[in-house]
Amino acid sequence: MSERLQSDFDKLVKTSKFSNEEIQFKKNFLNNFIKKGFPNRKQEDWKFLDISQIIKKNISDLSYFNDYSQSNKIDPSIFIDGLEHNKIIFTNGRIEKIDFNFEDQNKIEIIDKTKKDISFDYENSLIDLNSAFTDKVFKILIKKNYSLKKPLIIYHSTNDKIKSTNINLRLDFELGENSCLKLIDYFANNTAKNFINIFYNFNLEKDSILKNYKIDKFINNNLKYSFNNIEQDNNSVSETFILSAGSDYFKNEINCNLNGEYSSAFINGIFSLKENQQHEIRTTINHLVENTKSYQLIKSVLGKNSKSAYQGRIFVNSKAQKTDGYQLSKAILLDETSEFNAKPELEIYADDVKCSHGSASGSLNENSIFYLMSRGLNYQQSKELLINGFLMDVVEKITDVEIKNLITNIIGLKQ
Amino acid sequence: MDTREKDIEKLKDYKYGFTTDIENIKAPKGLNEEVIKFISNIKKEPQWMLDFRLKAYERLKLLKEPNWQKPKYPKIDYQDLYYYSAPKSMKDKPKSLDELDPKLLETYKKLGIPLQEQARLNGIAVDAVFDSVSVATTFKGELTKHGIIFCSMSEAIQKHPDLVKKYLGTVIPVTDHFFATLNSAVFTDGSFVYIPEGVKCPMELSTYFRINASETGQFERTLIIADKGSYVSYLEGCTAPMRDENQLHAANVELIALDDAEIKYSTVQNWYPGDENGKGGIYNFVTKRGLCKGNNSKISWTQVETGSAITWKYPSCILKGDNSIGEFYSIAITNNHQKADTGTKMIHLGKNTKSKIISKGISAGFSDMTYRGLVDINSKAKNSNNYTQCDSLLMGNKCGAHTVPYIKNKNFDSNIAHEATTSKISEDQLHYCQQRGLNPEEAVGLIVNGFCKEVLQQLPMEFAVEAQKLVGISLEGSVG
Fold first, then answer.
1. Mapping DSSP to helix (H, G, I), strand (E, B) and coil, where does residue B191 land?
2. Residue from the list A334, A351, A360 with its beta carbon closest to the beta carbon of B416
3. How much is the pTM?
């Protein structure tokens, strides 16, 4: 594997216009990755779903080289209708378009970030892989007191021109004081058997609001990994919604540092899995100062041979008195072969806190089905209605009405 | 304060901290084949037992000490320990209690464990283990009448080799993790219980463990077999003298319940926890595992963990038989610099199996407490149920309380429910109690006892009173 990595890396350096400093940075990350390799089940965070095995089984050998000097054609058919929005389009890992047409151009700055340092501690080798092979990293800065008029949709697309089987992409966001960004990640993959590795960095300043919706709806044979690092200052709010349904494998990881008082983080997720899909959400919420709040709700509906895992961790520093932390995960297993794993973890060093978690899993309630059937629905309809209600609970948590309606339609739920 | 006064002061905190001055026979220091042969030889063990030990030792050489646990400890030098230590007077085993060394009897009297059968009022049969050997077992006659075998492990190896051979190592195989394998290689004594078919054990059985000698590790092995339709309630208590060094206690406990049998295993663990600066104390690294082998069997673990510098154990149930039930009730209290990483594993293999976990953790001072548990419902365990509740109480902001549950559901007919909360004693409750005339310490004691009630009421009467007092003592000085 290491020869392949090295030669693909050399090709990347040859075809792109990185500065010497950048190349040096990337080299370090590459060496780190070669040393660590892909994570496997021996590491606690990868215990439930072993990505190195999954890659081996689904793709066998990965290739890493993508020619970022060549632009790709944008396929407009992937765009979402019925909602005016700003766009960032990734095709095969390359940013093809950044379009903030609905916004005041003076309030948004796009910085071609040269320095690729990572400001937090991590053990995760996939971040090394990402940092070694990404194209130019852009930083999007929303200036003080500006709320975006329309949501921003990031399209993640691939087409048959793709050369490598591994795609790495990264974006950084900085939300200035009292600003607001609504961000939708939308996956539209036309290729199969790719491993897509996404890394976002968010910096939320005082009073800012971030709403991030990740939508992976359409069935595809790709493997995806997404890592969000969120740093939050005083009174900031982050809201993350994850729909995890389309890919063969999808692991969403969120690391959220509540650095400022009265900051809060909300994470809501839906797993809706069918044949042979394996998905995971792993969250780490670090309550570092007083009066911070976090809330997590994860629901799974699991079909044949599917497997979902939820690893949630709430950490409360000894300084972080008056913390309010909550995790709830629920799962419905529809088939004998479906499997649900959870590890809701609390690590608490302060005494004046309110932290709790709950987890429940099982089959659909036969009594409820009986009730609905006695009202004239057939078995299938009753089942669908119950699942609809089960999932609607999570969608209801979305605070933006327009996006809530959009997501309800995309999932195909009834209100 | 001169040293003597200090010592008296110390004794007040941990009243079992005395040592008994008694002559010992020890195995040579260190861990090697010779020492294992020495232990086997001194106990006059048959060849198959020695083979069992050597097999475990071979395996041990390949194993590494685990290090995923939360409480870290300085590396233990396994070559710097005595693996066998016995009072000299035990060399020629006394035939009855009258021949027992009076010093030993004295020790157990101090501990409040009456070995003389006159203390019949208590109505509990006791097996007392002193360092590496079992010194006395009471009420033998009464038990024999019912066909119950209750004796030390060494005696069982001699007298009931078939039973031992059949069941030893079936729940905790010699190839298990590091500490369990270490125990398999060097275990010295422990209790053996066999309840024959259809017998309901007429009294509580109990083992009392005491570490006396310094630089020794205690490696006892307990094996309890409940044959078809039988019932037994078993209690275990532990203490150790106060020493500045850390001592290792790595026991293995195996329970086997056949069809319709029930085993109730209660522990009050009060090993020496170290002084208030965290110096000394016992490392309590114990492997306890129960196998519900037969249909409709039941195993229930109850533990009150107040002692030890580090407690690291997970009493588990393997629910193999259909309709079998596993229960786990636990109170763990850590104060000063104590650390605990404890919980349970419920492994559901049979149909209609049920398990229930109630865990209460209280941490005070500079201590650190982790609940770690696994609920695993296998794909064949149709219609199984688990309910888990783990609550933590924090006193002060220098301590930590953590919950790490692992939940695996591979069966769509089965339900798992898990709840956990972490909080502190509410000001309102304290205020209410103080208004009624209790001082803050009494108020905390009352509230904590209420918090633990669900577990305490699972204990047999005699233990419950002791445990309740222990809860109060363990938290002394942590309020205000």
1. strand
2. A360
3. 0.86
